[in-house]
UniProtKB/TrEMBL annotation:
UniProt GO molecular function: catalytic activity
Domain of life the protein comes from: Bacteria
CMP/dCMP-type deaminase domain residues: 4-121
Native species: Actinacidiphila yanglinensis
InterPro entries per UniProt: CMP_dCMP_dom, Cytidine_deaminase-like
Listed name of the protein: tRNA(Arg) A34 adenosine deaminase TadA
SUPFAM superfamilies according to UniProt: Cytidine deaminase-like (SSF53927)
Pfam families xref list: dCMP_cyt_deam_1
Amino acid sequence: MISSTDEELLRRAVAIAADAVTLGDAPYGSLLAGPDGAILVEAHNTVRRDNDISAHPELKLARWAARELDAQTAARTTMYTSCQPCGMCAGGIVRSGLGRVVYALSTEQLVELNPESGAWPAVAQDGPALFEAARVPIETYYRS
């Protein structure tokens, strides 16, 4: 359920996205709000500027949360973002321990507005293979 506070913080994320455009960056913005609703940190997309495919605001904030927040605080922290996180960012959000994401625009809506957003080709994956060899470093690490 989206509250009036959620809407206010989501509007801020959209404003960050709009500001990004004025800086020549892609139109995506995000912020983290702590358990008390205070804004902890904000970010926008800098993929082109940084020549870094991982410079999505959601991933930047997930990484910040993983570094800066203890697990209990992260679990009570909400990410507000102008667009639904992509698969890369969603994985980072899960691993960061953030408790909630609120987004303005769904992936489907984004693709309707900008069809190129959904034009990523599928990448072939083969495996698993070499289980006996691959298990050694895993077992060594996790048994230590």
